[in-house]
């Protein structure tokens, strides 16, 4: 695959100096930079892993809340109106 990118003058000069000091080609440098970027992205934890310690932490302990929501709401409302 062939790529074409545009760099501002300052960045281009810095890059060329770095390549000359390190003694590597532009292509090798870019390939390595892309590999590094991709490996860092792969190492990032997903949303589930980031929030896993919070799941169920503040739960009610009841596993029927979603299936019996109407009956539970009715009970709460009836209790409120009985006061």
Name the helicity range. 55-70%
The proportion of strand residues reads under 5%
Number of separate helices = 4
Please tell me what the overall shape is.
rod-shaped
What is the β-strand count?
0
Q: Average the pLDDT over all residues and give the rounded result.
A: 89
The termini sit apart by 75 Å
Cα radius of gyration in angstroms: 29 Å
Order of helices and strands: HHHH
> How would a crystallographer describe the biggest sheet?
none
Subunit organisation of the chains? single chain
Structural class call reads: mainly alpha
Weakly predicted, low-confidence segments: none
Protein name: Ribbon-helix-helix protein, CopG family
InterPro entries: Ribbon_hlx_hlx (IPR010985)
């Amino acid at each position: 695959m062939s790529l074409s990118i545009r760099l501002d003058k300052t960045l281009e000069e810095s890059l060329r100096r770095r390549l000359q000091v390190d003694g590597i080609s532009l292509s090798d440098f870019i390939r390595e930079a892309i590999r590094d970027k991709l490996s860092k992205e792969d190492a990032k934890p997903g949303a589930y892993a980031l929030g896993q310690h919070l799941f169920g932490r503040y739960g009610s302990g009841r596993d029927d809340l979603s299936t019996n929501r109407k009956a539970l709401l009715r009970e709460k409302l009836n209790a409120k109106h009985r006061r």
